[in-house]
């Protein structure tokens, strides 16, 4: 089992920035990548960004490219999501996930409890 704990959500005005953190613990060796998903009210959960533990392959959803940056701290098994130029449409619950990366993209196996991000216009 892998436990994931997110932090850093909150309320911010459009154009502002937030940084999310996700601390992983437990059997982290069973996973090879971590990432972030989000779910807005009435919408399906969608992929935001992912990063592999090994060579650090990074993927972003088109909607956040150039605005969001995912980074990792291998020593602490922590993943960060730096969000800049936030828009009201970025409002969602953001979930940290651990899993693996394949040719089809990021495959989540474990989930955090989620953290709310609200962007006001």
Write a structural description.
The protein has strands spanning 2-7, 10-13, 18-26, 33-39, 46-52, 58-60, 68-73, 78-83, 92-102, 105-111, 115-120. It has no helices and eleven strands. With 121 residues, the chain is mainly beta.
SSE blueprint:
Blueprint: E1 2-7, E2 10-13, E3 18-26, E4 33-39, E5 46-52, E6 58-60, E7 68-73, E8 78-83, E9 92-102, E10 105-111, E11 115-120
Write a concise keyword list for the protein shown above:
seven-stranded mixed beta sheet, 121 residues, 11 strands, mainly beta
Percent strand:
over 45%
* Poorly predicted parts: none
Order of helices and strands: EEEEEEEEEEE
Strand count: 11
Amount of helix = under 10%
Average pLDDT confidence is: 94
Morphology: globular
What is the end-to-end distance? 39 Å
DSSP helical segment count: 0
Supply Rg. 13 Å
Structural class of the helices, strands and pairings? mainly beta
Major sheet, described briefly? 7 strands, mixed
Give a nutshell description of this structure.
The protein has strands at 2-7, 10-13, 18-26, 33-39, 46-52, 58-60, 68-73, 78-83, 92-102, 105-111, 115-120. It is mostly beta strands and 121 residues long.
């Amino acid at each position: 089992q892998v436990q994931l704990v997110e932090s850093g959500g909150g309320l911010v005005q459009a154009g502002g920035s937030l940084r999310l953190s996700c601390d992983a613990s437990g059997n982290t060796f069973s996973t090879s990548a971590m990432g972030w998903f989000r779910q807005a009210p009435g919408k399906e959960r969608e992929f935001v960004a992912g990063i592999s533990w090994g060579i650090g392959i990074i993927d972003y959803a088109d909607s956040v490219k150039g605005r969001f940056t995912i980074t990792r701290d291998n020593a602490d098994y922590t993943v960060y999501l730096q969000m800049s130029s936030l828009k009201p449409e970025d409002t969602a619950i953001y979930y940290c996930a651990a899993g693996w990366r394949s040719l089809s993209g990021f495959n989540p196996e474990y989930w955090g409890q989620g953290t709310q991000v609200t962007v006001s216009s």
